[in-house]
Amino acid sequence: MDRIEQLMRDAKPRVGAPGAVPGSPPAGSMVYSTDPNVVSLAGRTRTRRTGLRTAAATVLAAAAVVAAVVVGGNLMPQPAPGPAQTGTPAPAVSASSTPASPSPSGAAPTASPTKSSPAALSTGGVACTLSNVDQQRSDQQRAIIPIAPAEEGYYTVLGCAGGWLAYSISDDGVRALQLDGGNAWFKIAKLQNGRFLCDVRQQWSSVFNWEFQASNNQGLTPQQAMDKEFAQKGIPVELRPQLVGDGPAAG
Question: pTM to 2 decimals?
Answer without folding.
Answer: 0.53
